Amino acid sequence: MVAASLLLAPPAASGPPVEAIAEGTFRFWKPSDGVATWTSAGVRIRIEPAPCRTPPQTEGCSFDHVNNQPLVTITAPGLPDYRALGDSQSSFYRIAVARLQPGDSRPGIVLENQSGGSGGDVREQILLSDGSGYREQLLPGHLQGELPARLSDLSGDGAVDFVLGDGSFDGAFGCNACTPRPPRVLSFRNGVAVDVSRERAYADVFRRALPGLRDRCFDRHQRYRNGSCAAYVATAARLGLVSPAWNAMLRHYNREGIDIWRGCVAAPPRGNAGADQRCYRTFPQSLAAFLRKTEYMR
What we know:
Largest sheet: 6 strands, mixed
Shape: globular
Low-confidence stretches: 1-13
Strand content: 25-35%
Mean pLDDT: 87
Structural class: alpha+beta
Radius of gyration: 22 Å
């Protein structure tokens, strides 16, 4: 979302004033907006639809004659202009300028590519400044949801952190919309984005998420609550509370549910392709295997 309070830079001698966005705050853009320009933390951002001759040809070019792939131009003092293409399949985008590493003298750029879908897949494109220019990388893993309107430093180390949903739970336990995503926290270490969810500095992220997940798991009126139970146990595991959460899940999960993770290790029997090839017969069995595979449990 566009920040509620947008400061306007002093107008130039000619032309409209340039919009100024607070550092760490996302600015929303969609292809039909055309060209948009603003400044943040001394960095000038220009975003526009890429020319339709730029491969790949997108649906926007075919039907609306406007490319839904953005071309972003970054202008920062003392650095050459840098141009980056966003995702060619996303519907809308958000951009923020933020300090990505402790002690950064120059802020970096976060380009959030939102493709939507039932799980809300998201692609976080990061531009890091190395003093002579920018280099790109993506936040790793299958991520879903969206970052908050304003990025914040959760650990107090002087750099922003990224909290998103763990996309490995997408479709794992039947009803996708009924399965909330446990948080994943990522941050930069030595110029590389890493998962820091296990670090004590981020425990509050999981403490805040846990009560809502527990309530959804315990709600016997919710037929498809087992996905919530999976997210509840996973989140508790990040806090070192997997044993009490597991015991509570055993008392409340839906025993009549068919929402069992089907990730099998064994090969299906030959000549029996039409048979039920699930490796696990109960939800707890499948959940234990899933949480070990995704490294929430050992």
